[in-house]
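Fold this complex.
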Amino acid sequence: MDDSELILKYIRGEANKTEREELALWLSSDASNAALFAEMKTAWEMAGKLSQPFNIDTSKAWNSIQHQILQEQNDNKTLIPSSNKFATTSWLFRIAAVLIIALFATWFFVDKDELLITVQTGDAKRILVLQDCTHVFLNENSRFTYPTVFKSNQRAVSLSGEAFFEVTKDSERPFIISNNDFEVKVLGTSFNVSAYDHNPNAVVTVVTGTVTFEDRDGHSVFLLRNEIGVLNKFKHAVEKSKTEDLNFSSWKTRKLEFKNTSFKQVCETLTDYFSVELEVKNETILKCKFTGYFVDPTLEQILSVLEKTLEIKALVNNKHIIITGKGC
Amino acid sequence: MSGDSIPKKKITEEQFSELFKQYYEELCRFVFPVVKDKDAAEDVVQDVFVKIWTRREELEITTTYKAYLFKAVVFRGLDYLRKQKTVGKVKEELKIVHNQSQQETYFGVEEKELIAAIDAGIDHMPENMRIIFQLSRFSSLKNREIAEQLNISIKTVESNVSKALKQLAVYLRPYVKNQNLKSILWLTLWYLLNR
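Structure:
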């Protein structure tokens, strides 16, 4: 067994004499070993203190669940009626129940027909190729779950975060991306899905092909090329729009494109792409139009072009940029 | 009926109430580190029990009720946490209840600072590892029971727990680094060899 497993055994009081001697030998061979041991032992003890003693009234709780059970039996639609802390739409309750059952069944369950893989990105992006050759470009801080082998009647995956999809055409098997709030269905196409847990809006942007974007109440929109569907999770409304933001997938392509784009939109794009803050001193500049095309640009390059084209001045202070001038 | 025996038929009302009385408190304490809120902990445990009763016809438990309960509660707890994050309500820090022993210092630092560091470390664990660690550290389930509940091997459980602890150890590195390791080392060796 490796060092950390040996340490754990000792910490839990499960190490025999031989193992303890082995551990002592290992500890005395290097100072960093002693450090690791101290850290792990303390970590175990501190973790134990997270579970705090507080007063639990079991009989009061028993009465409470009796009430909950009765309510559930009287009302078939709502599954968790007594707790207002959780969301209140009936669909969410249904999916919570399905998720719990699905979690038990699939999270660790290795079914020989469907092994599910979950990828979670942190500060890096990832590219995945699925069984049907669909390419998935997963952005930072996103979680994507997919089966190693798709079913015969559909290709089902789930996403929390942001990803760009290039879905292989297969008219027999729709490609379905789902999460708590919506479902995106396609046959073969390329599009971007932005659905971060912390963001109240989920946005689907279509590059090629057609996509059905449906929320959990059954409202759906049919999106064509260059169309955008926006779902507000709280209002439960799905809207279609054509936006001037051509750069929704620039995080993947490294290309920035502006076609008679308002300066206001340019600022929003720069904020997203470079993670900077822009302060525009003269509000009339926001309406100025700008046309330009950049491939893997630096912030300085774009600002320099903007300064020359629009009669403005950009003052860069770390991640904060102040725009002054007359504008167009 | 004991929670340690494997059920042969659908649960009866008497068995259900026995289970509740026996494990409710323990389960609440168990899930508290996940949801970090006393009311939420009770809600989560109550939800699991309500579901067990209302779905008793469909529910097939082939292991002990006790092991099933701990697993169900940790999953439900993480589910709750996920929902809280969706509505933008995340409990920022774990409020540590102050008692005698927390005046202790380890490595010259107050215990509550270390506890907070470990809490952050657990939050950042990949979810699968967190589930295994939670079940191992905070429940009285044996590795074998955990492996059975999650349908993985005992080896996987053991390696996940040690990996998790090794990861958590990193969060304490800034504190340990500054101390006199030699004294820790000699003390540990003495203790190890004299047991």
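Chain A touches chain B through 64 residues (CB under 8 Å).
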